[in-house]
Here is the input.
Amino acid sequence: MKGYLFLNGDPPAKMPATDDGITVCADGAYEYVSRHIRPDAVLGDFDSLNLSEVPAGIKTVRFPSHKDYTDGHLAVEYMSKARCSSIEIYGAFGGRPDHELCNYSLLAYARELGMKAVIKGDSFDVLLIDGEFTGTARKDATVSLVPFDSRIHILYTKGLKYAAKALTVDKIHIISVSNGAVGGEFSVSVNGLTLLFVER
Here is the structure.
């Protein structure tokens, strides 16, 4: 089953169709989601949303305000228990910069729980990859590879303007951003957890 997770960052300019899966809001994301679609569940410590604003019939899960994990992290765990096989994450950008940075970790946590996940922004999709990956991108779209691990090894890239081969990149010297797609299919092969940014 597919899952749609909405976080309390910048709302998407266009809401996705969610009829083919379950829709979960993390706390204050409910305010913008509810103007367009009816979510299946709202989860959080409700520091950004009054619980009374959620109508009966929508499942709510309240977490303690003094907790170790973010609402987004706990929502990913909830969606795993709901047997989601993949998740699209919206509202991950904007808002507090520490939360935005932590939201990339949701991709790793979903992977750990056996789910595919992608962060969907208005301009970029972000995936976490390790090994071979093949995707598509329009001509001149920006494609960037950013280490999630402390160091990654790019074995090769194909279908990008600047080919990379046997390239080591660490978190201090990131020389694998702002590549461009030639248009159509592209592929990369990496050793190490890598954030792949693909401009739409």
Q: What stands out?
A: The mean pLDDT is 92. The first strand starts at residue 2 and ends at 6. Residues 42 and 166 are 45 Å apart (CA to CA). Residues 71-81 form the longest helix (11 residues).
